[in-house]
Amino acid sequence: MTTAVPVGPLGPSDDRTAAPSPVAAYGAPPGCTDEFREDDGSVRARWRQVAEALDGFGPDGLASRRDELARLLRNEGATYNVAVDGRSVRRPWTLDPVPLVLDPVEWARLERAVAQRALLLDLVNVDLYGDRSLVARGLVPAEVVLGHPAFLRPCAGIPLPGAHHLFLTAVDVVRESDGSFRAVADRAQAPSGLGYALVNRSALSRVLPALHRASGMERQAGFFRAIRAGVARAAPEGTDEPRVVILTPGPLSETYFEHAYLASYLGYPLVEGRDLVVQNNRVWLRSLSGLDPVDVVIRRVDDRWCDPVELRADSLLGVPGLLEVARRGRVAVLNPLGSGILESPALAALLADVAPALLGEDLALRGPQSWWCGRPDGLSHVLAGFDHLLLLPVRPSDGSRPVRPALLTRAGRDELQERVRARPGDWVGQEIVVPSTMPTVADDGTLVPRPVVLRTFAVADDAADSYAFRLLPGGLTRVGADTGSLVISSRGDGTSKDTWVASAEPALQQSPWLPSVRATPRPVLVPELVVALPGRVAARLFTLGRSSEHAELVVRLIRTVLARLDQPIGSGDEDGAQSLQVLLAALGAASGFDPAADAAAVGTPVPPGDAAPARSVAEGVLPHDRTALALLFDESTDGSLVSTLGILVESAYSVREQLSADTWQLVGDIEEELGRFRRRPPTQFVGAQPSLLRLQRSLLALSGVCSENMERDSAWLFLDGGRRLERARSLVRLLRSVLVEKRTDVVEDLLVESLLKTSESLMIFRRRAGSILHVAGALDLLVYDVANPRSVLFQLDELVAHLAELPKRSSAQRLGNEERLALETITLLRLTDPDRLSAVDAAAGRRSELDSVFATTDGLLGDLLESLGSTYFAHERLSVLAGGQLESIGGGS
Amino acid sequence: MRYRIEHRTDYHYSAPVSRCRNEAHLRPRDTDRQRCVASDLVVEPAPTGWSERSDFYGNPVAAFVVDGPFTEMTVTAVSTVDVVDGDPLPAVGPGWGEALDLLTNDLSPAMLDAREFCFESPLVSTARIVREYAEPSFPPGAPLVDAVAALTERIHADFLYDPGFTTVTTPLDEVLAHRRGVCQDFAHLAVGCVRSMGLAARYVSGYLETEAPPGEERLVGADASHAWLSVFVPGWGWLDLDPTNDKVVGAGYVTTAWGRDYADVSPLKGIVFGGGDSHLLDVAVDVRHVLAD
Hints:
The complex is a heterodimer.
Chain A: H1 22-25, H2 48-76, E1 79-84, E2 87-92, E3 96-102, H3 104-128, H4 133-136, H5 142-146, E4 168-175, E5 181-187, H6 194-207, H7 209-215, H8 221-234, E6 244-248, H9 256-266, E7 270-272, E8 276-279, E9 282-287, E10 290-294, E11 296-299, H10 322-327, E12 332-334, H11 345-359, E13 370-372, H12 376-384, E14 389-393, H13 410-422, E15 427-431, E16 437-441, E17 447-460, E18 469-471, E19 476-479, E20 496-501, H14 515-519, H15 535-566, H16 574-589, H17 595-602, H18 623-633, H19 641-654, H20 661-679, H21 685-709, H22 714-739, H23 745-758, H24 762-769, H25 775-784, H26 792-805, H27 817-830, H28 834-838, H29 848-873, E21 878-881, E22 886-888
Parallel strand pairs in A: 3-20, 6-7, 6-11, 11-12
Antiparallel strand pairs in A: 1-2, 4-5, 4-17, 8-9, 9-10, 13-15, 14-15, 16-17, 17-18, 17-19, 19-20, 21-22
Helix pairs in contact in A: 2-6, 6-7, 6-9, 15-16, 15-19, 15-21, 15-22, 15-23, 16-18, 16-22, 16-23, 17-19, 19-20, 20-21, 22-25, 22-26, 22-29, 26-27, 27-29
Chain B: E1 2-24, E2 34-44, E3 49-54, E4 60-83, H1 96-105, H2 109-115, H3 128-134, H4 144-158, E5 160-161, H5 172-178, E6 180-181, H6 183-196, E7 201-208, E8 226-233, E9 237-242, E10 247-248, E11 253-259, H7 262-265, E12 268-274, E13 279-290
Parallel strand pairs in B: 5-6
Antiparallel strand pairs in B: 1-4, 1-12, 1-13, 2-4, 3-4, 7-8, 7-11, 8-9, 9-10
């Protein structure tokens, strides 16, 4: 007897009928392997634990876990920069709650195969930059190497200590319909993804703590320990404790987030090319204390951009002279320059032929069947099977992408064939591999099948069991946006997954620190100020301090104004109206912040979302309302709240590795508020109140976290120094703008009250002075009272103390220029007093002494700012000297 | 024949340079037909760092650093080179099709070495328009030497020598479109044409004797550094031809370096810190015949 009950194609019965079962509802598409379900529909054994948990969560639980992951990642500042119309746009990094689960036995096989492939690439690199026996033996056609722009002749013959050229490699693998793994792309120069794999693990373990503990998966820390050990081995001979930096192209590069994340995880300074300099045949880091030697450069800059002297002359990302130092063996660059050639699809197509010659065994992890069109038989094969293949450009750096002829129009297909015929050596035809799918949480909390590609990472490790490369257990799994995705990239709309290798033995807690470091009898902590802080980082921290202080001031001031606006100004209330005008004018004057200069220093990427130009302010608001709205929400107005917050967020991103998770969460909150302002700039004050209050809280919390949780190192000195200097200067400007002109007593009372309120000093003033508001008293409190953390002199005293702690550029005991300027400012203020400052020049009706003293103060603080810039932050302009001509290729600041 | 070569480059910057880092291909290399007897490279202000090596092609390179501040820098290379007259053109040689076959399939060391010069390089395209220009000189069955001689003759006839029209990085399609350029462009074009046929050609940088022998006209390009091409003739060797003057390279020519194109062997290149927005550059070359001691 048959029943009418539809038999789910999805297998194992789940008796629970109460809550919808996400697992039971999950259907794998036909025609490819599903990671989760067997062909008969049952859940694969390695997934049972996870499947149970998924059903336990239910659709709502899965959706909320997905949101929770998004929140955690946002708080980490995990982003991925995507080029849109030639601009770099920041996108949030996303993670799906369902991890990819791999079977330990299967993983062990894949691990060996990936290690073998890494070793093979290593040997190929040695060969190509050595005697090129592969070419001489006819195993690799000359054109594949010599005709490829990534084969960099200046890099031939550069020595590296140790047995291996390659330090870290990655290979993307997909599971084919027959269940076997295929290598679809090799990454051999500066593989990305490790940082994302780390942050994925950390986020998922917090969202699925029970499952994470119970799974007994293999940990990641051992791999990072191997990285540290590998770095030490790669260091030039005779280096006891190598000094290591991570070289990033900067905040605009796609994977900047992970550069910073890895730098702080591994404890190596993150530097840009202009932070390094070559002198006396060594590489040095321009730090606050001068020049610190560098032994190992882990580079995230692509080959050709690394040295403008010998490689791309127009590169501002590299270090002039780096190659010459590497050639002399005085610095190790990891991976070695030139290894980008290993990423050529033409070479990948030949690896199976090369393996027996270099390894004496067959390649275990093969790519999809591929044909390089530079060989006549390859070309004819590819043209014959054109519609069933994927066409890969041999030089992806040209910006061309893989194409599937079957998806083109007839004309497009003909045109592509024509291009392939014209330059056959530029193309590889590859059989189409359909990646396996696995459950991924959709918006409504249901599970949908999505294709996945796994990026595996291998680090050179002579102690590794096989092939001298050790793998990160699992890796980074990326997910295609829809079932049909063949090309899965982080640039697309897909998401990512954590990757779990179920462990045969219970997992031990591992530490990423080297045992020797932990066992050392000496104190492990390096005394601060010895750890080099690049001048560029100091500059950005300083900007962060200034911008957050300035934003805070603008918010305070505007809230004071709003409080006044809330009290309706009657037609007869001339005094109230006048005081309001004065305050609004002061808001403009307080914009002592020069965002243009700071933005240039930061190298600002375009904020996420479309940064719509601020809409014109709606009609029908009060005229002073309009000015104030512009000061708040007009991005193009210097010192406006929105432009200041923009600088705050960008400078935070550019020193990401210096900021703690707590700090980062607050930056995320601020960025969110900023995003709202940008999308819909408020057209009236009334609606802006709640946002401003939230913002003020975040800003206060930010300064609190910085002052309570940050190590008192040079990074803090600059962050706090920026804040102090900005606070002193804007207060001076504010006071000058409001108080120079003598107004009626009623108006002045209103103004003084507002000033005190803005400076959080009204209560203390009341306690001291009772109910009488007077200018001299306010000046005493706001300028002279060194016990008031908001007073000008308090800021200056702090600043002098900070300056004294900074590394000295000259050994002499003389005062630095900055200290001299700060002391001069203090003396100037001390030589007068509140009474003299508040005295009104009867004839002119204004406070002339206050005007001139504060004008001079403002000027001195400006000089101090400039002097700090030239002492600690300066970078020089760089040009290219060509034999025939000289082109200037841009400047630093 | 012994030549004394003085190659002087003066830089004048609009603002002080704090430091520059350079590479010079100024010392003439040894070749089958020449030997560099002596070469002095003098840089003013005095360099603070100096190293010499051979590049990928065996050309001598000097790398140096000059610390400023300075606004003027002078690099002077004085070299003495003994040159023998070249071999006469091979009367018969392989057909260009035969040469192509050898270069594609033969794995002998000479062929492998030549293969380095068969492909596109940063400044030498082998795009279709380049091949289209080359093809008339390469009729089926033509001897390689004849084909290349015809090619250089055509370039000489079709193109106008026009200093100032191009720069060191003008691409070949522009040179082809305007039919004008300088010796470097003609060398690049000829190299591109030969490579577009699948054959091997390298770019040679060097010098011409400044004063022509009595009774002969002074050659174009004699007051600066010069450039020409060298074609690999299987079974014979590298054949140097000068498309700018439509001559086989022989007496009066001194080789400095060779590579895939100008970018591999530019006489001076580098990176300058500071130096302002503009600079002036003056190059003076003097090549004279001197008596051997």
